[in-house]
Specification:
278 residues; alpha/beta; three-stranded antiparallel beta sheet; 12 strands; 38% helix; 16% strand; binds glutamic acid
């Protein structure tokens, strides 16, 4: 059996809260069950939302909680060349197409459609730019229009054939390639996306077990497709429950009173805090 490798992959875009503590603990505990490695990765591709103090807060809070990671933390902002290479591979396979639509144009198109495809989080991309001819694409590119790049989910599914993944909590799950539709692989402004970066880095860091909140379960369908197209190994998954407040609402930035630093300032000890996790 290869050594278990897990990772905690927060975005440094807010003060870490109990939800982060739980996600880190799940990943750490799974790795330490068999003397494996627990890694830290900053998912900081979106420079418009990242702030330097949040990197420090994540490291400070993890140390304070005794959730120390192995080796240096990886920053996705240092990995743009790897994401560009993966996008190039997907273009070469013929499953990535340029999308020139603005958000507004997509909303208008969806509103015009009689039955627009929907996913777990609302309307999916209606495929407008997938239908552009090669000439139309080249004209727009030659005009200097900067595109986003999208996955042609239908074509990708034809290439990969049926896929599935194993989740330690939810069991065996067949991949539904239509679930999130033609997702963005590379945003215009940052040249990559959550989906592409996470798949490239889990492979690069040799992560064997991907643990994360169950809100991200739909994304795993896309990730299995990308892993297969890019020739990456298949990790085992564990989509864990989300930490919620007393009203059952998942924690977010507005819950500053449940941030780890606020709880520390309120004189909670690490065992007190860990005892509040599910
Ligand atoms: N960066 C994501 C988050 O903060 C986690 C991504 C993942 O684990 O795949 O929720």
């Amino acid at each position: 059996m290869p050594q278990t490798v897990t990772r905690f992959a927060p975005s440094p875009t807010g003060w870490p809260h109990l939800g982060h503590a739980y996600a880190a603990k799940v990943a750490r505990d799974l790795a330490k069950q068999d003397e494996g490695r627990f890694l830290l990765r900053f998912e900081d591709i979106d420079h418009t939302r990242v702030r330097p103090e949040y990197y420090d807060a994540i490291e400070t809070d993890l140390h304070w909680l005794g959730l120390d990671w192995d080796g240096p933390a990886l920053r996705q902002s240092d990995r743009t060349t790897a994401y560009a290479a993966a996008l190039e591979d997907l273009r070469h396979i013929g499953v990535a197409y340029p999308c020139f639509c603005t958000r507004r144009e997509i909303e208008d198109e969806v509103a015009r459609m009689i039955s627009a495809p929907h996913g777990p989080e609302g309307a999916l991309y209606p495929g407008t730019c997938r239908r552009l001819s090669e000439d139309e694409r080249n004209t727009r590119l030659a005009d200097g229009q900067q595109p986003a790049w999208r996955l042609d989910a239908g074509k990708a599914a034809e290439i990969t054939g049926p896929l599935s993944f194993t989740d330690l909590r939810h069991g065996h799950i067949p991949v539904d390639p239509t679930l999130l539709g033609d997702v963005v692989l590379a945003r215009k402004d940052i040249g990559t996306s959550y989906h592409l970066a996470v798949v490239v880095d889990d492979s690069f860091q040799q992560v064997t077990h991907v643990t994360r909140g169950e809100d991200l379960l739909p994304s795993t369908h896309v990730h299995r497709i990308l892993q297969t197209l890019l020739g990456f190994p298949e990790p085992v998954y564990l989509h864990h429950a989300l930490v919620v407040d007393e009203n059952g609402v998942r924690l977010a930035k507005r819950h500053d009173s449940l941030s780890i630093r606020s709880l520390r300032e309120a004189k909670l000890t690490p065992p007190d805090l860990l005892a509040r996790l599910p």
